[in-house]
Amino acid sequence: MEAGPSLLTRRAGVGGRGEGGGAAKGEGHSQVEMNLIQPESGEALETHGVTPMVLRLPQNQRKAALYAFLIVLLIFTTAFLLGYVAFRGSCNYCSDTDGELVPVDDDTAGSEHSSAGRIMYLGELKDMLRKYLGEEKIESTIRRVSRAAHPPGSLEGSELASEILQNFRQLRMDHTWTDSHYATLQFPSKTQKNSLWVIDEQGTVLEDLSPEITQAYCAYSGTGTAMGSVVYVNYGREEDFRLLLSRGLSLAGALAVVRVGGGVSYAEKVWHAQQAGLGGVLIYPDPADVPQDPRRLGLSSNSSISEHVHLGSGDPFTPGFPSFNHTQFPPTQSSGLPIIPAQPISANVASKLLSGVAGPDCPRGWQGRLPYVRCALGLAFGAVEGRRVKMGVYNTMTPVLLNNIFASIEGKTESDHYIIMGAQRDSWDPGAAKSGVGTAILLELARTFSSMVENGFYPRRSLLFVSWDAADFGNVGATEWLEGYLTMLHLKAVAYFSLDKAVLGDDNLSVYTSPLLVDLIEGVIKQVEHPKHSGHTIYEYTQSQGASWKNQIVKPLFLNSGGYSFTAFAGVPAMEVRFMEDSRPYPFINTQLDTAERLQEMLEGRVGALGRRVGELVGLMVLRLAHDHILPLDVTCYSGAVLNFGSQLNKFSPELQARGLSLQWVFSARGDYNRAAETLRETIQNSDIHDERMARLYNTRIMRVEYYFLSQYVSAVETPFRHVLHGRGEHTVSALTEHLSLLRSEPLRFDEAHFRRQLALLTWTLQGAANALSGDVWNIDNSF
Questions:
Q1: Parallel, antiparallel, or unpaired for β 255-259 and 280-284?
Q2: Is the pLDDT of residue 164 over 90?
Q3: Domain ranges for the chain
Q4: 13 has a pLDDT exceeding 60
């Protein structure tokens, strides 16, 4: 492990860089001599200026004096214009079509000079970014990174970490360092294989279904055996289990057979099954969701897909605090760890298990495409048949040393404010699309920005490039780093850009993001050409499809996305950029088939070009955040979300009023936040943004907005995703809305005391966000 500077390291100068000099200045002098002729009368001249002097002269002398005056005026005007032009050449705040200049010199705040002394404009910097971005290096890096599986703690994983660290050093970054943690990860047992059997009443094995599932597993599954009947539960969503229970099926102790997908992670599927009383979960890729013919770029019918099942992120045995080596770990674990076993299975095995299910037909939307299987709501392998299904999971916990690799370019004006780009490095399998693409784009962006700095670009704010470890186990490396700096990141981190799984197709762009970054996305997609439809920007092509670009492109952050923990846990705006194809989804993620060759075949040899397009999208957004005096984040974005929440509450006004409950409190908090956000925006618009002190004050308030929506009333250990809009738990808007809906659907389940607490704490979180956004205490418009 290499010891490097801490996150707070700050240097007065940027080492290893050529400092841009100021523009050369020249001086010149002009001398004019004018002799005034005395009047013949000898009368003394009045000293009240040129005009009365000239009026007293004879006609010919007045003409001479007038000509002299005009000459002086002409010389003065010419000198002024020359001075203006010279001044404008070094003007701090002159603009071109792309707006203001990038500050790189402490002596000329608000302007940027190249090493040749020339001012560089934002438009030029965008062209420079596009010039230096390459696709050949992206393709070669993907092939090199995905030669073989490289899980955390393996020799291959360590060699890759060293290679990336060396790459960063060769770029002559201002800082390179490693951030190390000891985390507890779960791997398949080396002595006892996971099993799946069909047994009779005496426990005799009738059929062994285990051989096809030896390489795949669910990390952090409950261990041991589970035995029972089998029930099909569609995607394993909460509403799927509710439907089965409403039909009177006895699910206690049964084994759930669940489809991959449906917008629900493996962890959520297992959690819902556990809550419904089932004894185990078997998860398979249905041909309706994942193509199955490998000759047509699909999975084989005997392939299964691995994924972790921890309903959370980070090391589940150090929830809420970092697993540094010196930490004295308390005897605690994440509440999101399941206690029932879970195992991936293939479509072939799922067909055998579900072929005997009897009962009424499944509702619309439940039908998959398993061959020879009728979709029915019922149980198979029950007591009447005299057969059971028995599953055994024997995974073992192992402490592993993790290494996150960092490199940074220091900002010139706000060096302690960071714009972070990161990508997953580890993979259970070759991981070409899962980790290879992101790693390749990360290295290419680092090389590009380093080249730009060598050629005259200095960002206002610092750029961090990070290769994360143990992301396959629930973004462990990234979350442990966040936990280590949780108390100060909302003051330091401007935004996070995840490059994970960035290229899975070439048709549709999806951006999973915090609402604060939506305006930034709109500006960039209007400048970047669509990878599949040349001649059209992404914005133009998306709008031509008939729906608004926001509805088609912008998606909420989800539990397993690389940026989720940054926003929901640490309160940092985050996004994950991803090109996909709806008609032919990439089916090989988390399988041994996720190789560079298959990815190239799937994308018809355009992996490098698509990776470059993602790099351009992210790079332009990073460039804007590194450039602007005032951060281009929309502080008013949450006003609409809170207003929508208020509208949902208002629908239940009669029921609440009957119980003596008023919604005025939450409406007042929403109004205060809206006024505070609008006031801040108007204040910034009417301010001199080139005043560095004022700009920093405004930027600090803007950077904290996401953090304001982390509930201060729940524990980061017990409820890590504290964000009231994007998080998970009883403190969230979605939980309160769901609880409120019980007033009409199941009024006996409505807990008024619990609802009062939910409403009070949520309202105070909103009010706290409004107060913080207002700034000084004397500016707070508290209407309570």
A1: parallel
A2: yes
A3: 46-79, 124-185+399-584+603-627, 195-394, 637-779
A4: no
- pLDDT grade, residue 16 (50/70/90)? very low
In CATH terms, is domain 637-779 a member of 3.40.50.300? no
**Cα–Cα distances in angstroms (integers) from residue 591 to residues 158, 252, 299, 316, in the given order:** 21, 32, 9, 24
At residue 184, does pLDDT exceed 80?
Answer: yes
Reduced to 3 states (helix: H, G, I; strand: E, B; else coil), residue 504 is: coil
Task: Report helix, strand or coil for 258.
Answer: strand
334: nearest Cα among 319, 324, 322, 320: 319
DSSP state letters, 654-705: HHHHHTT---HHHHHHHHHHHHHHHHHHHHHHTS-TT-HHHHHHHHHHHHTH
Q: Answer for the pair 469, 182: CB distance below 8 angstroms, yes or no.
A: no
596, two tokens = 């560079």
From the candidate CATH numbers 3.30.565.10, 3.90.550.10, 3.50.30.30, 1.10.357.10, the one assigned to the domain spanning 195-394:
3.50.30.30
Average pLDDT of the chain is: 84
pTM: 0.84
Compute φ and ψ for 441, nearest 5 degrees: -70, -40
The predicted pLDDT at position 294 comes to: 57
Task: With a cut of 70, say whether residue 7 has pLDDT above it.
Answer: no
Let me know if 529 is exposed, middle or buried by CB neighbors in 10 A (0-12, 13-18, 19+).
middle
100 neighbors 124 (Cβ within 8 angstroms)? no
Alpha-carbon distance of 35 to 65, in angstroms, equals: 9
Mean pLDDT of 611-616: 97
Superfamily of domain 124-185+399-584+603-627: Zn peptidases (3.40.630.10)
Residue 479 per-residue DSSP state: H
Closest CA to 195 of 100, 297, 280, 134: 280
pLDDT band at 95 (very low <50, low <70, confident <90, very high): very low
H or E segment to which residue 520 belongs: helix 518-525
33-47, 196-210, 223-237: lowest mean pLDDT where? 33-47
Tens-place pLDDT, residues 524-578: 999 999 999 889 999 999 999 888 899 999 999 999 999 999 999 999 999 999 9
689 CB-contact burial (10 Å; exposed 0-12 / middle 13-18 / buried 19+): middle
Q: What are residue 87's phi and psi, to 5 degrees?
A: -65, -40
Side chain identity, residue 463: L
